[in-house]
Design a protein that fits this description.
294 residues; alpha+beta; TATA-Binding Protein; Endonuclease III, domain 1; 5-stranded antiparallel sheet; two-stranded antiparallel sheet; 7 strands; DNA-binding
DNA sequence: AGCCAGGCAAGTG
DNA sequence: CACTTGCATGGC
C-alpha cells in the first residue's frame, strides 16, 4: 500500500473535503465510519472516505491542512482530477457580487465541484429523480454491491460502480428489487445506450453548452435537470446550473426576475446572475447552503 | 395518514 | 410548444 499527502494552500481556496463529498454532487464516495454529516463535522471533518476508481480503492481524509491518501498506487493525480484541486476558487468567484452566494461561500469555504467519471455520474443522477440525497447514495451502494466488480484492499472487499455492460444485462425486476422504483427501466436502457456507445461523453465535451445538454437527453431518464448535473459534475461544464427544486425555490425567493417560464430561458437568466462561466460553482454552493439550513 | 423527495416520459390540446 | 398525469419507495 502506498500513501501520501497533498498540501492544501489557502491561495487556491483550500479544500472542504466533507462538503465536497457530501453535498449531493457525487455519490461515489463512502465514509469508513458510519457517522452522520453533523457528527463528522463536529470531529473536525477528518473522517476517511473511500472510492473505487479505475479498479483500485483510494482512501482519503483531510487533516492538518493536508489531503492524506492511501491506495495501491500513487493517487495524487487522480485526487487532483476528481476533486478539481487545481480550480482557483478566489478567481472563480471574483466576478460574483451576489450576497446569497457570498453567504454560502462563507459557510463552506473550500468546497469544490467534483469531476466524476461519466457513467456512474449519469446513473446516479438518473436515480436522483424525486429522491433524497441519502437514498441516492444508498442506491449507488446497492448497485455496486450487486453488480460491481469486487476489489480487495487492506484486508477488506470493496465494490466498484458497475460498468455499462453489466448494468445493461441487469433486468428491470432486479433493479426494482434494489429500490430504484420507476427509475429501474431508465437505468437499464441508458446502460444499454452507454454500452453501445450511442452518445460519446468525449464528443459531448466538445459541444457548446446547450447542445451538450440536449445531446445527453438521448439517454432515458435524462431531462434538462439531470443533463445539467452530468455536465457540471462529470463533463467539466462549470457554467451548467441544474434547476432542481431547491434552486427553483431560491429563484422565487431571491431572484424573481430570473423566472422566465421555461427551463431554457430561466437557465440563461440564472446563469447570468451567477456570473456566467462558473455559474455552476455558485449553484452548488447555494444548493448546499440552503439544504443544510432547516 | 398524507406529503414530499436534486424529475422524467408519454399523452393531450 | 405548454400543460397534465402517472410513476416507486421510504422517512417524517
Amino acid at each position: 500500500m502506498e500513501s501520501g499527502s497533498i498540501p492544501l494552500t489557502d491561495a487556491s481556496g483550500g479544500l472542504d473535503l466533507q462538503s465536497t463529498l457530501e453535498s449531493g454532487q457525487t455519490f461515489l464516495w463512502r465514509r469508513e465510519d458510519g457517522r452522520a454529516y453533523e457528527e463528522t463535522a463536529a470531529h473536525g471533518g477528518s473522517a476517511w472516505y473511500y472510492t473505487v476508481a479505475e479498479g483500485e480503492v483510494v482512501r482519503a481524509r483531510q487533516r492538518d491542512g493536508r489531503l492524506e491518501w492511501e491506495a495501491t498506487t500513487d493517487a495524487e493525480p487522480l485526487l487532483e482530477e476528481r476533486l478539481r484541486l487545481d480550480d482557483d476558487l478566489p478567481e472563480i468567484f471574483e466576478g460574483t457580487d451576489d450576497s446569497l452566494v457570498a453567504d454560502a461561500r462563507e459557510a463552506y469555504p473550500g468546497m469544490r465541484i467534483v469531476n466524476d467519471p461519466f457513467f456512474p455520474c449519469l446513473v446516479s443522477f438518473i436515480c436522483s429523480a424525486q429522491m433524497r440525497v441519502e437514498r441516492i447514495h444508498a442506491m449507488g451502494t446497492a448497485l455496486a454491491r450487486e453488480f460491481g466488480e469486487t476489489v480487495g484492499f487492506d484486508g477488506e472487499t470493496y465494490h466498484a460502480f458497475p460498468t455499462p455492460e453489466r448494468l445493461a444485462e441487469a433486468t428491470e425486476a432486479e433493479l426494482r428489487e434494489l429500490g430504484l422504483g420507476y427509475r429501474a427501466p431508465y437505468v437499464q436502457r441508458s446502460a444499454e445506450l452507454a454500452a453501445a456507445g450511442e452518445v460519446s461523453p468525449a464528443a459531448v465535451r466538445e459541444m457548446e453548452y446547450e447542445d451538450a445538454r440536449d445531446a445527453l437527453q438521448a439517454f432515458v431518464g435524462v431531462g434538462d435537470k439531470v443533463a445539467d448535473c452530468v455536465l457540471l459534475f462529470s463533463l467539466g461544464f462549470l457554467e451548467a446550473v441544474p434547476l432542481d427544486t431547491w434552486i427553483q425555490t431560491a429563484i422565487e425567493d431571491h431572484y424573481p426576475d430570473c423566472e422566465r417560464g421555461s427551463y431554457a430561458e430561466t437557465s440563461r437568466a440564472i446563469r447570468r446572475a451567477f456570473g456566467g462561466e462558473y455559474a455552476g460553482y455558485a449553484q452548488t454552493y447555494v444548493f448546499h447552503y440552503l439544504r443544510n439550513r432547516e
